[in-house]
Amino acid sequence: MLIFFAVIIIISSVILGFIVLVQNPKGGGLSGSLGGFSNQLMGVKQTTDVLEKGTWIFAAIVGLLCLLSPAFIPKNKSGVSNDEFINNINTKTQPAAPAPTAPAGTTVPMPQK
Questions:
Q1: What SS3 state is found at 27?
Q2: Which of 26, 36, 54, 111 has the most CB atoms within 10 Å of its CB?
């Protein structure tokens, strides 16, 4: 389920980015790049209204999906997610191995400087 949320969030973010990049801060934006076609179809004012509404809609979709997706993270009985549980197992300290010793009756040469 998390993969589904991730894919939808990525797609929505890309669409949101495209909508934002199409807009021109000076008011031209999509209406300026389409030439006279946009004036015949929707009009200059309505083109910017559609882009603004699309920006708000996709921003809301991304925000809601990001807030809802943690609810679908699988939990085990202790209330810890599986990833956290595995990380805790991997990071537990192992008992230290004893230092190697020389057999009885042998001398170990000291390293020379």
A1: coil
A2: 54
* pTM of the complete model: 0.51
Phi and psi at residue 41, in whole multiples of 5°?
A: -85, -60
- Reported in sequence order, the residue ranges of 41-107 that DSSP labels E, i.e. its strands, are none
**How many H helices and E strands in the chain?**
5, 0
Q: Which of 11, 32, 28, 29 is nearest to 20 (CA)?
A: 29
Per-residue pLDDT of the chain (113 residues; tens, 9 = 90+): 788 889 999 999 999 999 988 887 665 555 555 544 444 555 556 677 888 899 999 999 999 999 998 888 877 666 555 666 666 666 655 556 666 676 776 776 777 76
Query: Using CB atoms within 10 A of its CB, is residue 4 exposed (0-12), middle (13-18) or buried (19+)?
Result: exposed
Q: In this structure, is the dihedral angle defined by the CA atoms of residues 28, 30, 34 and 38, taken in order, positive or negative?
A: negative
Coil, strand or helix: which one is 56?
A: helix
